[in-house]
Each structure stands twice: as structure tokens, then as C-alpha cells.
């Protein structure tokens, strides 16, 4: 039962965040790049003021899978690098913590672009 | 026709041509599709932690995101992700799978312009701003954190 509730939270919060994105699309006609940038900045902000971990504790993937989690992870990496390396951490931290995601997206994007061709122009 | 009138007429024309999305079905669809993607992410994460007991929580999250990115890149490749996207809007853009899609989709679309100028350059048309804004803003936060640390 408890597990069911955990998953319900993930679904509700994740769905709610995505719905906010859709609300932005409908009301402002924003393009997807702008929406993603907005949500990354929200994540950076939530992590900077220290709220993100509290939400993450009960929302799990509901907040980590949306791109907000990516922004939070950037900032989390920077802050922990600043703690261990001082000023150098400002430059090394953010991409270290998100290296897996960015590299994966580049690697798989490149491979699948080589394999598949456009479907839209048929 | 004056310039202003022409712009007005053009905007009216554009507005008439934009496909009308009925807000309520798309809101509902973006909600449940987005929620479902997060649910799949949680499922993968819990499964990884269950299968590999000594995996740290952070490593499990990294693997989860990488797996989601892989799935989204593959679905984009076979043309399924864009179909889901037309149906669910924000539900497919906001999750990390949307980030993956935003890299794979233009790469495939501009493949015919060659590997360097097609795939590699267009790869970052949407992801570029995300990474730039993310890195600059979190470096800024890190700098503030560093300066506060100097005085504490």
C-alpha cells in the first residue's frame, strides 16, 4: 500500500509539472526550447534555495525525471564542487554532475541519427 | 496598404492557419503521459536498486536517466516519439526524454546536410540554450555560494 502511494505521488507530481509545461504552451505559444530553458531555471532556483531535496524526498522521479531535476542536478554538482574545490568548483561542478545525461543524449542522438532517416518527409 | 495594415493582416492570417488545439484534452493528455513517463523512471530506478544492491542512490538515478534518454532517442529514431508528442504536448517535452528528443530529432532531420554540418551542428539547436542557461545560472549560484562561504 505504501509503495502504491509512493508511485501515486510520482505520477501526480510528474504529471502536474508536465501539465504546467502544456499550460505555458497554450497560454504563451512558447517553443519547446524556451519551455525547457524555463524549467531548467526553475530547477536551478529550487536547488539554490534548498527546497528541491524536500520535494524530491516524496516526489522521487516525479520531480527528477522532468527537466527541473536536470537543473537541480547542475546546481547541486556546482555547490558540492565549490565545497570541495573552492573557486574551481564554480567551473567544474555543473557539467560533472550532469555529464552522464548530456553525454548519453549526445551519444545516442548521434548513433540514432546515423541509423535512422527522417520520417516527416514522406 | 500601409506597412502596419499588412502586418495586421498577416498576423490574422497566421492565427487562422495555426492548428487549433483544444486546451482541455491536451492538458489532460500532457498530465497522464508526463506522469506515466515519470512513473516509468521511478520503476526503472527501483528495479535497478533491487537488482544491484550495492548501487548508490545517485548512481541509480544517473542510470535511470541514461536509460530514459536511450529509450527516447530510439523512439525518436523510429518516429514514434513525435507521434506521442503531437498527442501529449508538454507531457513529452518537459521530462528528460524531451531533452533527448530535442537532440535526436534535429540530428535526424538535418542528416542530409552531412555529418558535421547536419547532425553535429543541428544537434544543439534546442539543447544548446538549455545547457548554456543551465551552466551559466548554476555557475552563478556556485559563485554566490563561494562568496558567502568566504565570510562565514
Gap between N and C termini of chain B = 66 Å
Order of helices and strands of chain A: HHHHHHH
- Range of helix content of chain B: over 70%
Q: Any idea what the radius of gyration of chain B is?
A: 21 Å
Give the largest interface. Answer: A-B, 76 and 73 residues
Q: Which term fits the overall shape of chain B?
A: extended
Would you tell me the overall average pLDDT of chain A?
Answer: 90
Structure summary, number of beta strands of chain B: 0
Distance between the termini of chain A: 49 Å
Fraction of residues in β-strands of chain A: under 5%
- Our count of helices of chain A gives 7
Arithmetic mean pLDDT of chain B: 90
Please mark out the parts of chain B with pLDDT under 50 across 5 or more consecutive residues, or reply none: none
Poorly predicted ranges of chain A = none
**Class from secondary-structure proportions of chain A:** mainly alpha
Largest sheet of chain B: none
What is the percent of helical residues of chain A? over 70%
- Domain module count of chain A: 1
Largest sheet of chain A: none
Please provide the ordered H/E string of secondary-structure elements of chain B: HHHHHHHH
Rounded to an integer in angstroms, the radius of gyration calculated over CA atoms of chain A is 17 Å
Describe this structure in words.
The complex is a heterodimer of chains A (122) and B (152). In chain A, 84% of the residues lie in helices and 0% in strands. In chain A, helix 2 (32-48) crosses helix 5. Chain A has helices at residues 2-28, 32-48, 52-59, 61-64, 67-85, 88-97, 99-115. Chain A has one domain (2-115). With 152 residues, chain B is mainly α. Chain B has a domain at 24-109. Helices cover 84% and strands 0% of the residues of chain B. Chain B has 8 helices and no strands. Chain B is extended, with a radius of gyration of 21 Å. The termini of chain B are far apart. The mean pLDDT of chain B is 90.
Amino acid at each position: 500500500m505504501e509503495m502504491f502511494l509512493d508511485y501515486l505521488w510520482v505520477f501526480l507530481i510528474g504529471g502536474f509539472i508536465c501539465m504546467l509545461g502544456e499550460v505555458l504552451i497554450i497560454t504563451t505559444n512558447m517553443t519547446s526550447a524556451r519551455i525547457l530553458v524555463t524549467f531548467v531555471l526553475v530547477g536551478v532556483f529550487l536547488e539554490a534555495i534548498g527546497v528541491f531535496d524536500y520535494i524530491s524526498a516524496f516526489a522521487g522521479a516525479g520531480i527528477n525525471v522532468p527537466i527541473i531535476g536536470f537543473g537541480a542536478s547542475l546546481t547541486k554538482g556546482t555547490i558540492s564542487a565549490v565545497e570541495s574545490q573552492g573557486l574551481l568548483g564554480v567551473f567544474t561542478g555543473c557539467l560533472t554532475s550532469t555529464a552522464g545525461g548530456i553525454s548519453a543524449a549526445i551519444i545516442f542522438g548521434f548513433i540514432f541519427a546515423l541509423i535512422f532517416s527522417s520520417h516527416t518527409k514522406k | 496598404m500601409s506597412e502596419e495594415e499588412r502586418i495586421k493582416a498577416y498576423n490574422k492570417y497566421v492565427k487562422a492557419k495555426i492548428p487549433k488545439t483544444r486546451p482541455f484534452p491536451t492538458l489532460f493528455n500532457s498530465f497522464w503521459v508526463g506522469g506515466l513517463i515519470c512513473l516509468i523512471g521511478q520503476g526503472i530506478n527501483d528495479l535497478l536498486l533491487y537488482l544491484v544492491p550495492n548501487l548508490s542512490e545517485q548512481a541509480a538515478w544517473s542510470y535511470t536517466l541514461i536509460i530514459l534518454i536511450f529509450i527516447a532517442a530510439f523512439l525518436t529514431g523510429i518516429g514514434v516519439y513525435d507521434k506521442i508528442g503531437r498527442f501529449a504536448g508538454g507531457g513529452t517535452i518537459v521530462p528528460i526524454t524531451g531533452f533527448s528528443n530535442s537532440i535526436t530529432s534535429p540530428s535526424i532531420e538535418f542528416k542530409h546536410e552531412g555529418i558535421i554540418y547536419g547532425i553535429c551542428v543541428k544537434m544543439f539547436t534546442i539543447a544548446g540554450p538549455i545547457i548554456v542557461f543551465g551552466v551559466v545560472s548554476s555557475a552563478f549560484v556556485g559563485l554566490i555560494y563561494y562568496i558567502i562561504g568566504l565570510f562565514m
